[in-house]
Amino acid sequence: MNESHVDFFVIGAGSGGVRAARMAAAAGARVAVAEERALGGTCVNVGCIPKKLLVYASHVRAELADATDGYGFRAAEPDFDWPTLIANKNQEIERLNGIYQRLLEAAGVEIVRGRAVLTGPNAVRVGDRELTADHILVATGGWPAVPELPGAELGITSNEAFFLRELPRRVLIVGGGYIAVEFAGIFHGLGSEVIQLYRGPLFLRGFDDEVRRHLADEMRKQGVDLRFGANVTELAELGSAIRATLTDGSTVDVDTVLFATGRRPLTEGLGLAEAGVELGEGGEILVDEYSRSSVPSIHAIGDVTDRLALTPVAIHEAMCLSRTLFEGEPTAPDHENVPSAVFSPPPIGTVGLTETQARERYGEIDVYTSTFRALKHTLTKNTEQTFMKLVVDRASQRVVGLHMVGPEAGEIVQGFAVAIKCGATKAQFDATVGIHPTSAEELVTLREKRPDSE
User: Fold this and answer.
1) Span 240-266, mean pLDDT?
2) If we measure between CA atoms, which residue out of 158, 223, 191 comes closest to residue 383?
3) Strands 263-265, 142-144: parallel, antiparallel or unpaired by DSSP?
4) Same domain, 256 and 270
């Protein structure tokens, strides 16, 4: 056996790369995967998993307040210890790293530690080792982007936020995407004073406008200082603190500045251009519907392609690619009606089209909305409002968009996403009996069209 040749060489052992490697190996291919960092990629190490653990922690104080206000519990003011949370989080991530290693080894995939660089359409180099492959997959993901401004080196990104030695008392978050919003909720919930800046008029661009406005209202009610139409122009040291100068000339003094100003595909220095792979303006690998690059033997999935930057999407693309290359079933990934969530305070769950997108695609639509105080909060001082929305194509009566802001939004919308994917109509929603009393039942009891949707 030629030890320097494999059927399939995967660059990047994140969720997408690992799934592609395992499926290809199960189909009989000889597979190797290279990783220069920890196994599991962004999601496991500095993304979805540790972020959600910190989100859970950030809810505890509010849950205790509700328990005391309305449910008869008596407890002392909680004493939170950030180092304990981070140490426990690190232990769980290390456990997951080990699971990923065992899954690859059990599948017969060779793990090559180090940075892989393409040296041709069918060749890679990892350290001093040269390998060839019939097919190469680039699944290197993305990396946080930091704006170019004086003193930018004083800030951190989400990568470093997971390893801070102590909880900052005052935090400035720069950015308006889901990462910025989620960390604003995390730090605020754990006790930090939080200012979030976004240069645009409203954060979470691309989400439904009513969802964006509702979340902004709820976060401000909680005490997060949201400032839209604002940005940072300079950072400077101020003793042990950081002074940030804003676009209006004002300054704020904080302990930590977190840049959540987007992510860029991690393609630099991989030898892609030398191998003839065409890249987009943002450095993303351009691929066809089957995840094949401009070089037929080189493929790409996940965030590095800048399609939909979601872990389950990368896994879906990986499975489709394995079927295409090694199982004789050419399969194109389906990026339509992909559900997603933002673990904000309160969280967002969404699937399908926004109202604006639906109007552009279908013209005439019906919109159903509901805003209410969840039953859980009725015994407490908590004034949080849940928001739900259905967007319906008037001609076919298909529900083409479903959006929610409220507790367990991700869990609720995941189930409804099946209905949306199956093309469920508003009549089928109406015919479904709700589970009472739940918030989710509201989505099958909405009857009155919003007047301005006529």
Assistant:
1) 98
2) 223
3) antiparallel
4) no
Per cent of the chain over pLDDT 70 is 99
Whether residue 132 is found in the same domain as residue 271? yes
Task: Assess if residue 408 is contained within a domain.
Answer: yes
358 within domain boundaries: yes
| 80-110 tens-digit pLDDT | 999 999 999 999 999 999 999 999 999 999 9
Rounded-to-integer distance, Cα 354 and Cα 206, Å: 8
CB 193 within 8 A of CB 61: no
| Whole-number pLDDT of residue 220 | 98
Give pLDDT, residue 67: 96
- Pair type for strands 31-35 and 251-254: unpaired
Among 13, 8, 12, 15, CA closest to 31: 8
Tens of pLDDT, residue by residue over 282-341, are 999 999 999 999 999 999 999 999 899 999 999 999 999 999 999 999 999 999 999 999
Residues 182 and 305 in one domain: no
Q: Which two tokens stand for residue 445?
A: 């009891």
Give the catalytic positions in this structure.
Answer: 436
Asked if residue 157 and residue 250 are part of one domain, the reply reads yes
Q: Are residues 283 and 136 in the same domain?
A: yes
Hey, CA dihedral for 108, 113, 119, 121, is it positive or negative?
positive
- The mean pLDDT of the chain is 97
Nearest Cα to Cα of residue 181 among 189, 337, 46, 241: 189
Residues 6+ apart with CB under 8 A from 405: 211, 214, 215, 218, 346, 347, 348, 386, 387, 388
Higher pLDDT, residue 46 or 453: 46
**What pLDDT was estimated at residue 451?**
87
Long-range contacts, 270-277 (Cβ 8 Å, 24+):
270/11, 270/116, 270/117, 270/118, 270/138, 270/140, 271/117, 271/118, 271/119, 272/118, 272/138, 272/298, 274/118, 274/119, 275/118, 275/119, 275/120, 275/121, 276/121, 277/118, 277/138
What residues contact residue 418 under an 8 Å CB cut-off, 6+ apart? none
Pair 94, 136 in one domain: yes
**Cβ(22)–Cβ(104) under 8 Å?**
yes
Give me the number of domains the chain comprises: 3
Domain end, chosen from 242, 261, 280, is at: 261
The parent domain of residue 362 ranges over: 340-453
